[in-house]
Amino acid sequence: MKIINRIMISSAFLVLLSLVFLLAVLSLIIFLFPDDPGKEVLDKNVFYAGEILRDFDVSTKDWDTLNARLDPFGYKLLVLEGDDTVFSTLNDSQGRIINSLKTLELDQNILAGENQDLTFVGVADGEYSIFAVGGSSDISHVSNGFLKSFLISGLLVIAVILLLGQLFTRKMAWRILQPLNALSDGAKRIENGDFSQPIVYSGKDEFEAVCIAFNHMQEHLLKEREKNAAYERARTDLITGISHDLRTPLTSVKGYIKGLLDGVANTPGKREQYLSIAYEKACDMDELLQKLFYFSNLETGNLPLSLVREDLGDFVRRFAEDMQDEFDHKNIKMTLNITSVPHPVEIDPEQMRRVLLNLTENAIKYASGESLSLSISVWYEGGMEHLLFTDNGQGVPEEHLPYLFERFWRGDEARSAKRGEGSGLGLYIVKYIVEAHSGSVTAKNDNGLQIDISLPSEKEEIL
């Protein structure tokens, strides 16, 4: 559930629970005080006071005795003769009702009522008006009790709302802080170089997406670190490869030049031979440096492709024709097996020619045998144009096949076969260029080494 929905539901539940509690308190007050606050309720002792007044013999004028009989019931005696006060035991606060009682018209019947929050009962007997003024009416007690109860219940409701608010807020804060703490711990782990432990958070809210994104970032950083480590190893391999591959021709050049300087080549024929060999070794060094420069462009992404539409079969035929003289000079036999259907592809002719040159150079260096035979086959299959380059050499040990297209990789047998002549970059460049054309390359052994290159076909679909 989303955080915003959870907050809204929690707030609604908090208000609902508070209102239910308030309703319960008000219901309890109504249950305890069922009388209607608008109805006047007289003191129950007023009836006893009325009986006492009715039974009193006014002729005795024993007002003290009458007052003494009223006193147990909380009533005071007031006797009026016309507008004159004959007898009164009212205190100052109760005496204020004398004037209002003088206005009442009494007869022989008992009159009871409430005046200025006091209950009274009166009776007329001859020229006397006799009143018993007693305690406050119940309405005042009810009003005061209701107000006190309402105040207490209000304070209690406020306290409960505050308590519930604290509980819900604390729970909500815990739910929010849990993923935040996990993210903070994850950031500290990454800062310390630990990319192995992902954040585990299973909440169904917005933080789940944040934690998933954090884990993806951590995986990306881990891959980048591994990639940088691989680049560092590649740089180390590059230095090692350069030093190894340049050492042999450089040593030969130095040796033959030294022979010339020391007079070992003491005839014109020997001097020409020494110079020719030194030049050949210098050309090998230049070729190696060109490959390293090309490899540097690959690694930095500075190898733009200029794609044009070509027929792969025609492209292979032109390559074989251009190389025929060199093949004849090196006693290499080239065979083409190209199906008669068109083989349209989009390629960079210069880069794809480099692919075929590298495959040819690799076969010449590492294929053993007295007579080298090369074969290039082109056919269409499964929406891809296939180019199969094969030689009749001894192939590559099966355990070495997975590493054949790696940078600077050379098996020990391959390295020793031609006195260390090889940079370990040729097949890596082949793989890089083919994949840049959205293709793939694989290798296997079958009466020699077979390199299978697949490129996307540009044949138009038949509607």
Provide an overview of this structure:
- The protein is an alpha+beta fold.
- The chain folds into 4 domains: 3-37 and 142-184; 46-136, YNR034W-A-like (Profilin-like, 3-Layer(aba) Sandwich); 226-297, Orthogonal Bundle (Helix Hairpins), CATH 1.10.287.130; 305-456, Heat Shock Protein 90 (2-Layer Sandwich), CATH 3.30.565.10.
- It is 54% helix and 17% strand.
- The chain contains 12 helices and 12 strands.
- It has helices spanning 3-32, 46-55, 63-70, 92-95, 98-102, 138-191, 206-261, 268-299, 312-329, 349-366, 412-417, 426-436; strands at residues 76-81, 84-88, 111-115, 118-125, 128-136, 308-311, 332-338, 344-347, 372-381, 384-391, 440-445, 449-456.
- The strands form 3 sheets. Strands 2-1-5-4-3 form a 5-stranded antiparallel beta sheet.
- Helix 1 packs antiparallel against helix 6 (138-191) and helix 7 runs antiparallel to helix 8 (268-299).
- It is rod-shaped and about 180 Å long.
Describe how the helices and strands are arranged:
Blueprint (H helix, E strand, L loop, with lengths): L2 H30 L13 H10 L7 H8 L5 E6 L2 E5 L3 H4 L2 H5 L8 E5 L2 E8 L2 E9 L1 H54 L14 H56 L6 H32 L8 E4 H18 L2 E7 L5 E4 L1 H18 L5 E10 L2 E8 L20 H6 L8 H11 L3 E6 L3 E8 L7
Parallel strand pairs: 7-9
Antiparallel strand pairs: 1-2, 1-5, 3-4, 4-5, 6-8, 9-10, 10-12, 11-12
Helix pairs in contact: 1-6, 6-7, 7-8, 10-12
Adjacency order of strands in the biggest sheet: 2-1-5-4-3
Count the E strands.
Answer: 12
Number of domains as seen in the coordinates:
4
Helix percent band: 40-55%
**What is the CATH class name of the largest domain?**
Alpha Beta
Shape: rod-shaped
Identify low-pLDDT runs. 137-142, 412-421
The oligomeric state is single chain
What gyration radius follows from the Cα positions, in whole Å?
Answer: 57 Å
| CATH third-tier fold name of the largest domain | Heat Shock Protein 90
Helices, by number, come to 12
In sequence order, what are the helices and strands, one letter per element?
Answer: HHHEEHHEEEHHHEHEEHEEHHEE
CATH architecture descriptor name of the largest domain:
2-Layer Sandwich
> What is the distance, rounded to the nearest whole angstrom, between the alpha carbons of the first and last residues?
50 Å
Question: How much of the residues is beta strand, in percent?
Answer: 15-25%
